Amino acid sequence: MMRVLVIGGGGRIGSAAAWDLAGSDEVDEVGLAGPRVGRLERAAAKIGGDKLRLHPCDVAGGDLREVRRLMDGYDVGVIALPDRRTSYRALEAAIDACFDAVDVLEEYHRRPDPYETEGLPVPADITPDEYGESLHRRAEENGVALLDGMGFAPGLSNATIGRGIDLLDSAERATARVGGVPSKEAAANHPLGYTVTWSFGHVLREYMVRPRVLRGGRIVDAEPLSDRERFVFEPLGEEFEAASTPGMPSLLYTRPGLAEFTEKTVRWPGHWEGIDLLRGCGLLDLEPMEVAGCSIRPRDLFISVVEPRLRPLPGETDLCIMANSVQGLKGGEAARVDHHLLAGPDEVAGISAMARVTGSSAAVAARLLGRGEVRGRGIVAPEDGIRGAAYDRYLRDLEARGIAITETVRAGV
């Protein structure tokens, strides 16, 4: 039996992971840790059952010794925190506590993104990359496995790209197209054709920073939201638009044999034009400005005004969409591997598609980690840790939860 601690267990993604874990026969205790007792209690009431333990604990501003003591009482963890500062603090605590954990943040902690750091606590005398490497080395020395960016994208999407590369004799180009979107009916009811299913502030950060991509085998910083494309998502027969974002950065470093790699976020048509207008007007900027005698960051004002209008209305649902492709050679011929996912919410449990796919991906991976089925120590990317037999088990467990991936291998394309 297994005891799993969910740090950020009162949030959308953390509580969804805890819900999945609490329903597993091999988990006998699920700890919910977070700074707000009320949120933990509401999450526990929604999840139900007698496996839950609540731990009021502030990773952001509290004493990390308390967090480490809490980790000592569990076998494995899920870190589901909404920003980079708290995520790195939790990883620091896990390394010191010799505590294996899954983290769901859109980051490769071994190579921290230099843009919009969100209070990332890099020591003054080293670079962000040196800090990431120091975390990796410390984790290796302590025998700790930190399965990094293990949600939907990054996470599930990385694992399928890695699988596509493994199926070919040589892979040249990979493109990940992933996103959470409202249903078509719900999209018509909200600005930007979008509804909020996780941290909106972090979504806007990804719209504004320069994503790292592979071009000609070199890592380069692309323009935000560049390399756009329209495509028909075959499982729905609907047209979507995708633009480059920094959501799956580990593949830039773990699969250097690729000549081209881009991760793109999927949205309904028209969304990116709306974001272009907002960016051009300066409404997504972070530089404070004076408004009626007050210093205000435009993005903070925008979030406070717009986010309430993006919250799902009663009865509205969302979808998780993935259309990943890897191209290269197999048997001396051009070949392509495609992976598709279409997943909706759990309406009975009241869990959105984004929370369900991300939370269950993290929960399944945490159980794999707890059983010792994940390869490697240190900061482990999804495409390295969820591979081979672990990948097969991971997909079977997700499929049992109604999260099914279709895989197609085609020659001559």
Description:
- The protein has 413 residues and is of the alpha/beta class.
- It contains 14 helices and 18 strands.
- The strands form four sheets. The protein has a seven-stranded parallel β-sheet with strand order 3-2-1-4-5-6-17, sandwiched between helices.
- Helix 3 packs across helix 4.
- It is globular, with a radius of gyration of 20 Å.
- It starts with a strand and ends with a strand.
Main β-sheet: number of strands, strand sense, barrel status? 7 strands, parallel
Total count of helical runs of at least 4 residues: 14
Secondary structure tally: strands: 18
The termini sit apart by 47 Å
Q: Low-confidence segments, ≥5 residues, pLDDT <50?
A: none
Helix share, percent:
25-40%
Strand order of the largest sheet: 3-2-1-4-5-6-17
Which secondary-structure class do the elements indicate? alpha/beta
Tell me the fraction of residues in β-strands, as a range. 25-35%
Radius of gyration: 20 Å
- Based on Cα principal axes, name the global outline: globular
Mean pLDDT: 94
Short description:
With 413 residues, this protein is an alpha/beta fold.
Main attributes?
single chain, 413 residues, alpha/beta, seven-stranded parallel beta sheet, seven-stranded mixed beta sheet, 14 helices, 18 strands
Topology:
Elements: E1 2-7, H1 12-22, E2 27-34, H2 37-47, E3 52-56, H3 64-71, E4 76-79, H4 84-96, E5 101-103, H5 128-141, E6 145-147, H6 156-167, E7 170-182, H7 184-187, H8 200-208, E8 212-215, E9 218-221, E10 229-233, E11 238-244, H9 251-254, E12 260-267, H10 271-280, E13 289-291, E14 294-296, H11 298-310, E15 318-330, E16 333-343, H12 353-370, E17 378-380, H13 382-385, H14 389-400, E18 405-411
Parallel strand pairs: 1-2, 1-4, 2-3, 4-5, 5-6, 6-17, 7-12
Antiparallel strand pairs: 7-15, 8-9, 10-11, 11-12, 13-14, 15-16, 16-18
